[in-house]
Amino acid sequence: MPEPEGAQRRRLLPLLGGVHGGRSAMTCKYRCADACFHPVPNESDNEYFGDMVNKAMSRRGLLRSGAVAALVVGSGVGSGALAAAAAPASTRSSGPKPPTPNFPDVPERGRPVGFRSIGDNTLDTIVVPNGYDWSVTVAWGDPILPGAPEFDFDHQSEAAQLKQFGYNCDFVAILPLDRNFTKALLWVNHEYTNEELMFRGWTDAAAATVEQLKIAQAAHGGSVVEIERVGESGEWLPVGGRRRYNRRIHTNTEFTVTGPAAGSDLLKTSADRTGTKILGMLNNCAGGTTPWGTILTAEENFNQYFGASAAVTDAAVAERYRRYGIRTTAGTDRGWEKTNKRFDVAQEPNEPNRFGWIIEVDPYDPTSTPRKHTALGRMKHEGATVSIAEDGRVVAYMGDDERFDYVYKFVSKNKYRTGDSKRDRDSNMRLLEEGDLYVAKFTGDSPAGEIDGTGKLPADGAFDGTGQWIPLVVGGQSKVQGMTVQEVLTFTRLAGDKVGATKMDRPEDVERNPVTGTVVIALTNNTARNAARGVEEPNPRLNNKWGHVIGLDEAGNDPAALTFTWKILVLAGDPSDPSTYYDGYDKTQVSHMSCPDNVAFDPAGRLWISTDGMPGPSGIHDGLFVMPVEGPDKGHVRRFASVPKGAECSGPFITPDGRTATIAVQHPGEDDDASPDNPFSTFPYGDQPRPSVVTVWRKSPTGGPFIGD
Ligand code: FEO
Ligand code: CA
Ligand code: CA
């Protein structure tokens, strides 16, 4: 049998590198437009479905909503083969549900992890535990579409990039294409670009060529890549030959708009007088999958692409720009205003309002138009993950990744249809177009003043309490004084300010455990939480450089409930530091984890957490960690993988058969002094660093048992 492509690539890996000290300023500039150096913008006072799910439910006794969310798969039926009569073009599905994959039995819930943790390290490669292996599935520049040239670092072009895999990979999902789960669709977000690392001799946007700017625009967005499993292992590689589903979405792809703000005056521009057609998606960070087999992808730090908002003098409009971090001065670090006036707020004041949404993509139909769903609000969306409520409505949990911003959820008006027909899928495809939007208020149960900011446990032994979902839009009516529905949805942060939502330490992924029903919220860090800002039980540490994780349990374990209880699961960081807490587990036994960002669950309900920013406060590389959430090993955090120099660990996605952990190696080689002539990382092929998607699997003749066992 020929050596798999991944194995060949692994042999080319570079020699191991040295230590990276603090966080790169380059990271801040290009990912979040130096948000961490800017004033905090929140200054307010305040069988794949029915059969598989049924099987999973009866076999594991899973919660209804959880099973649906965890085992999400999609329609593998040919694109556009069946025309929908009733639904508008933008919501037609590609067909009925595909067949159910034959997954092996899942491990028992609460099962302990069975691998030996890897140590803290600063190696310029992927490190996984003994007994596991990994390979690069796809990397920046790999040809995706017909006619794409091979990657040529020194001769890159917009035309090539439009057909090649994009830059910084973040959210990853794998959606099965067949019953045996041998073929699948890989979805990947391309959040942003590192021009300093992409172009030799780059100085800044002002000196950039238009071609360079267009290459960067083409490298943003997302990719669909048809992949296949290598034998019986958990390794996945791109298919050869015909790739009917492959797709690139980029800055000039057309999107349509759904929901109450579609067509609003707030979204109209000179190029789109309907307020319903938008070119591109920007800074797509995390995301989720839906039970009907689509991808949700979240526009996060979209503000950095726009400048010159000071030209708009209306005070109310200026406040909206300020709250969303739109730069007042002309020009941006991206420089895209040089290619298109829509990035210049002075010329197109509403263009920024057309970004910051949750987007739904049907990966099974490469001709489908992606949809921006205004019913889910506009913010620096980290991601969105879907559960199904007791009554069949669908619920999307969402975080707004900014210091002192909020946690939200959307509850659909209509109910999920469990059938397999094309009609059922068409109906489900419209669930995120209409519904109610809420923001979270957390209340601690300790007396005022008891929380001292050091992380010391309160007298009742836990950072915990109750909470409520405060309505913003319900039944198509605004619940926010002085704001219309369209204003609430387009300027959702301002709505959250008005109703007294709880200011959190940067809400990242929010995802419901398919086995236990607990909603996990990753709060990555917040060093701006100082004495003047104060602490409270849900955000209990001053100068929160390491971040924390909250578990939220909805009343009655129903995602549509309006009240909840919560507790802190992890106060992350060096376990020897007294301010840390790992769900009560013996801290001498846990791995050092900090800056929790993305979360995922395996089929046993264990929590997987990837980190972003550990080199700064912790001096070690980011990585992927796993933590059982019940049983005697609850809180036993172990480090499963680490990523190369300068990289953030994104992704993670545990395949529903439990055999593969997928990691996105985002911005390898990011460093203040790095350039193509002085690369800080040479991952993965020993020359220029290339953002990559990596699959990790357990070495075993049969491909089992599960990742983490
Ligand atoms: Fe793009 Fe909130 O991380
Ligand atoms: Ca308490
Ligand atoms: Ca993230």
UniProtKB/TrEMBL annotation:
One Pfam match: PhoX
Keyword field: Membrane, Transmembrane, Transmembrane helix
Entry annotated with the keyword Transmembrane helix: yes
Record PROSITE patterns: TAT
Membrane-spanning ranges: 62-87
Region (Disordered) residue spans: 88-111, 666-692
Keyword Kinase: no
InterPro entries attached to this UniProt entry: PhoX, TAT_signal
Name the record gives this protein: PhoX family phosphatase
